[in-house]
């Protein structure tokens, strides 16, 4: 029931499956302190799509590099997720991509690029660059009565965010998503891009997350892209997190990342 990739909280290309059993994450970065947890890594599991891991030649369909970068802001306890995908053999990445999320409670779209789970204890998902999102599809993974005979009566629901870019698009594609748990009334959460230069889209990210706890700057550069500047200041680290209302500031350097 859970073996398909789309049954997990991850990103797929054109709805294609992949086999990750013998694929290890690469460029694995970890960092943690009292303010944040940081993680980043990429995989190339699509390399084996169509022909399989033991066949030759490798499938020419796509040579994808799929990266996920995660920042958990411990106070108040929300997550920023930067996903990116590129074809390392071709500069033109013109495929549709889907980002999947799953929940024990149904999802409900509440605004442009904003989705929440229902209930008093819930989670709000805010998508960056909602103008280029084409769809936010909500669905049912399985109802409790459908699996009761297996001895489990719980339910699972899904959200599929979809994005595709013009055929002549150069570069990569991806998603920036804020996941904000809450209890009671849904808070007002907004994402605003920060002024940046030499910042390849979805390889880097520079946003301000506004919440009831303040305005936090989340700057991500997981591949240490050279020349990336934000508000006129160079970014020479994996991540810069400046928490509003004097809640703390963190620089994550490459030598701090733990394999």
Task: Outline the structure in words.
The chain is mainly β. It has a single domain, classed as Distorted Sandwich (Beta-galactosidase, Chain A, domain 5), CATH 2.70.98.70. The chain has one helix and 20 strands. An eight-stranded antiparallel β-sheet has the order 2-3-4-5-12-9-8-7, with no helix packed on it. The chain has a five-stranded antiparallel β-sheet with strand order 13-15-16-19-20, with no helix packed on it. Strands 1-6-11-10 form a four-stranded antiparallel β-sheet. A hairpin with a 3-residue loop joins strand 8 and strand 9 (121-127). The protein is globular, with a radius of gyration of 19 Å.
Descriptive keywords:
1 helix, mainly beta, 259 residues, five-stranded antiparallel β-sheet, eight-stranded antiparallel β-sheet, Beta-galactosidase, Chain A, domain 5
């Amino acid at each position: 029931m859970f073996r398909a990739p789309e049954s997990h909280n991850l990103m797929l290309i054109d709805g294609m499956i992949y086999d990750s059993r013998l694929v290890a994450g690469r460029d694995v970065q970890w960092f943690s302190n009292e303010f944040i947890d940081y993680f980043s890594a990429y995989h190339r599991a699509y390399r084996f799509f169509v022909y399989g891991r033991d066949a030759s030649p490798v499938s020419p369909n796509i040579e994808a590099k799929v990266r996920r970068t995660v920042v958990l802001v411990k106070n108040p306890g929300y997550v920023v997720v930067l996903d990116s995908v590129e074809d390392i053999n071709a500069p033109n990445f013109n495929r549709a991509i889907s980002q999947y999320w799953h929940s024990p409670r149904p999802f409900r779209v509440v605004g442009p690029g904003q989705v929440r789970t229902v209930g008093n204890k819930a989670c709000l998902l805010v998508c960056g660059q909602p103008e280029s999102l084409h769809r936010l599809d909500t669905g049912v993974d399985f109802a409790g009565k459908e699996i009761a005979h297996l001895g489990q009566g719980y339910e699972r629901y899904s959200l599929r965010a979809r994005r595709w870019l013009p055929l002549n698009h150069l570069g990569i594609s991806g998603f920036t998503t804020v996941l904000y748990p809450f209890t009671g009334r849904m808070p007002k959460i907004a994402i605003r891009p920060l002024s940046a230069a030499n910042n390849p889209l979805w390889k880097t990210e520079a946003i301000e997350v506004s919440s009831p706890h303040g305005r936090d700057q989340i700057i991500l550069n997981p591949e240490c892209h050279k020349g990336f500047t934000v508000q006129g200041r160079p970014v020479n680290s994996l991540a810069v997190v400046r928490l509003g209302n004097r809640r703390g500031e963190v620089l994550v350097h490459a030598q701090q990342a733990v394999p």
